[in-house]
Amino acid sequence: MKTDQQHDFYEKLEAKGVSRRDFIKYCTVLTATMGLPYSCVSKVAEQIEQAASKPRPAVVWLHFGECTGCSEAFLRTPDVGAIILETISVEYHETIMAASGHQAEKNLHDAVEKYKGQFVCIVEGAIATNYNGAYGKVGNRTFLAIAQDIVPKAAAVISIGTCAAYGGVASAKPNPGGYKGVGDALGIKPINIPGCPPNPLNLLGVIVKYLSKEPIELDSIGRPMFAYGESVHDNCPRLKFYDEGKFVTEFGSKEAELGYCLYQLGCKGPQTYNNCPTAKFNDGTSFPIQAGHPCIGCSEPDFWDTMTPFYEES
Ligand code: FSX
Ligand code: SF4
Ligand code: F3S
Q1: Could you tell me the pTM of the whole model?
Q2: Cis, bond preceding 55 (omega within 30 deg of 0)
Q3: Whose CA is nearest to atom 1 of ligand 3?
Q4: Closest residue (by CA) to atom 9 of ligand 1?
Q5: How does pLDDT run across 36-67, given as a tens digit for each residue?
Q6: Helical pair 4-15 and 41-53, crossing angle rounded to 10 deg
Q7: Ligand nearest to the CA of 169
Q8: I need a labelling partner for 75 at 20 to 30 A (CA). Which of 14, 60, 203, 225 fits?
Q9: Distance from the Cα of residue 308 to its chain's centroid
Q10: Which ligand 3 atom is nearest residue 269's CA?
């Protein structure tokens, strides 16, 4: 029997085009993504329902040097995006807010003052640090000045995407602007959710754990272990065709019809830690290697410098 709170929650999701069945499907995928057994699906569903019925934490989402693919990835995954938006209250997000110009600046200021010490700051994009941050500005303030002003006022900081986590594309050589990830630019230790773009399920997993006050175990470079504890290669569906980098199937052979390892086409799956083979993108449809493209190591620090050329074995 559904409680009134559950009823409200499902009504809100239905209004966004997400049925109860879709929601449970996502809880199943999320449970696996969080490294929990199947028996925990109802617990995860309950945690999200409860989180949505409590006052939702205010989120200030800042954009710096990036392509907005991280926001796109979560907004264009309607089911996961809708669930995330039911559990948090996004007070400021330049891509999805209606306001612009001075009104947008005022919204940011007001949200930070109102929720000081309580809001979650999600940062997307890298921060220019050379020449007092002159290589990147919003509203005539440098990314660096904005980050130094706002980030310390947050209760928790999440760096979404490889750019915010480690500098990403903006910090690729020769990097004249001195772009860095949020942690390095500000000397802090945020929760890093890398990937270019990252999987929105990994953000949802962090949010669920944060709201449930569960500890989030991080690796040495700030990534949640539940999502980045194993390499892409460890769980690759083509692993059976990998033999220390040699093709074990001939093109055109019976086995090759089933698939082949992409290592000799430059796959960086063995050096890349991410849960793409299990979490997948676009509502669980696929991920690069399943679609026939080698992994380019998009969730690793400095991947533009260390994983290129993308189409050569490393
Ligand atoms: Fe970076 Fe996100 Fe890559 Fe783009 O904004 S991680 S360039 S997908 O969008 O920051
Ligand atoms: Fe490993 Fe890439 Fe081959 Fe998959 S395709 S088995 S990740 S080298
Ligand atoms: Fe990125 Fe490799 Fe996954 S390119 S999306 S980490 S398969």
Answers
A1: 0.93
A2: no
A3: 298
A4: 69
A5: 899 999 999 999 998 888 888 999 999 999 99
A6: 90
A7: 1
A8: 225
A9: 22
A10: 2
The H or E element spanning position 82 is helix 78-87
Judge whether 292 and 265 are in contact, CB under 8 Å.
no
**Are domains 4-227 and 230-306 of this chain identical in fold?**
no
Q: Where are the domains of the chain?
A: 4-227, 230-306
4-227 classified as CATH 1.25.40.420? no
Q: DSSP letter at 178?
A: -
Q: Residue 192 has which token pair?
A: 């890093």
Domain 230-306 indexed as CATH 3.50.50.60: no
Return the amino acid letter for 261.
C
Q: Are 272 and 231 in contact (CB under 8 A)?
A: yes
Q: How many CA atoms lie within 13 A of 54 on its CB side?
A: 13
Compute the residue count for the chain: 314
Q: Is 167 exposed, middle or buried (0-12, 13-18, 19+ CB in 10 A)?
A: buried
pLDDT digits (tens, 9 = 90+) for 212-258: 899 999 999 999 999 999 999 999 998 888 875 555 555 555 555 54
**Could you give the CA distance from residue 104 to residue 313 in angstroms, rounded to a whole number?**
46
User: CA–CA separation, 141 vs 161, rounded Å?
Assistant: 22
* Torsion, Cα of 211, 214, 298, 119 (10° steps): 40
* 181 close to 188: Cβ distance less than 8 angstroms: no
